[in-house]
Amino acid sequence: MExxxxxxxxxVKENGDRALARYTEKFDHVALSEFRLSxxxxxxxxxxxxxxxxxxxxxxxxxxxxxxxxxxxxxxxDAEKSGVIRGQxxxxxxxxxxxxxxxxxxxxxxxxxxxxxxxxxxxxxIVMVTPSGPEGIPSAILAAAKIAGVDEIYQIGxxxxxxxxxxxxxSIPKVDKIVGPGNIFVATxxxxxxxxxxxxxxxxxxxxxxxxxxxxxxxxxxxxLLSQAEHDTLARAILITTSQxxxxxxxxxxxxxxALLPREEIARQAIEKHSAIFVVAxxxxxxxxxxxxxxxxxxxxxxxxxxxxxxxxxxGSVFLGAYASExxxxxxxxxxxxxxxxxxxxxxSPLGVEDFIKRTAFISYTKEALALEKxxxxxxxxxxxxxxxxxxxxVRFEEELS
Length: 402
Hints:
- The protein has helices at about 1-15, 15-25, 40-50, 50-70, 110-120, 140-150, 160-165, 185-195, 220-230, 245-260, 265-275, 285-295, 325-330, 365-385, 385-395, 400; strands at about 75-80, 85-90, 95-100, 125-130, 150-155, 175-180, 200, 205-210, 235-240, 275-280, 295-300, 315-320, 355-365.
- By secondary structure, it is of the alpha/beta class.
- The protein folds into 3 domains: about 1-200 and about 355, Rossmann fold (3-Layer(aba) Sandwich), CATH 3.40.50; about 205-345, Nitrogenase molybdenum iron protein domain (Rossmann fold, 3-Layer(aba) Sandwich), CATH 3.40.50; about 370-400, no CATH class.
- The strands form 3 sheets. Strands 5-4-3-6-7 form a 5-stranded parallel sheet, sandwiched between helices.
- The N and C termini lie far apart (about 65 Å).
């Protein structure tokens, strides 16, 4: 996979828009003479979107904004020592690229979840890429982009889109950071290009772990497990319970509900090949196993779920109680749905406003303040064998020493 993706990246770096056109025709079966969508194209997509979808997107935006506004950071100034000023600036990134998946499903929710935190952070230019099919880009994607305030939209996808954002082409601007989930080609491209461009994380297949006891509703749990399984054939849906009876009832419900799904074939492969039900002895074992998995989504369907929140050590996003179903987080509640997968919740966090800022430190010393600390600086510089470092301090006091 890496060799295939490296060849695509090198081609786009060398040949720019010509390579993009070739790959778009090869992989998406679309011949394009222009990658950028016009304002009229976006407005037309907005107008074609059903009113109830627009209303739902607007509600989602309000919730996402209200949650992410609380993540904003401010700088600080420290002047505790006489003659010394230290501080930190919090600065937004200049340009960010957002990848919105296409393929087997459309995700207007991903547009909101990626673009709105960037806007709140103060990013000046938000560029979106998403693959086009024979019918073009789904109108709901364009409506979400307009609602979220995306500045530019380019109808390209795959590893070639990531390369275009990282290197820039004749028509597509180079960005400082690329965010958003994609397929294995997209994830591999982001991994290879990290360092050339910043990225959010390497996203794998979607996953959910449900912790439940005998009080839980098996129909609810089965529905929640299948809501993840229908994402991808590699998705993981896991139940960890202390109740053998609940485990068997959930298994029956999964089979019943699975047969009713439009995406049954995808969900069935995920359930049969990558999912599981664990029956364990007690709550302590439930949480120990869950924290070892470090899931993207965690549902706690136990009695008094809030009382168990302190047991969570590694999870992307937590859903408490029978009525906080995981799709709430996917679409509407407000916390971000771009989450660490494949155990990376041990060290990654959900996408947020902080992902679109940089911190820059500053210092100011008067001569009198430097005089108090100069000897320690020179001692440490010479201990490291860096004489020029020491002399850069010493030269400022040579008049007094001569």
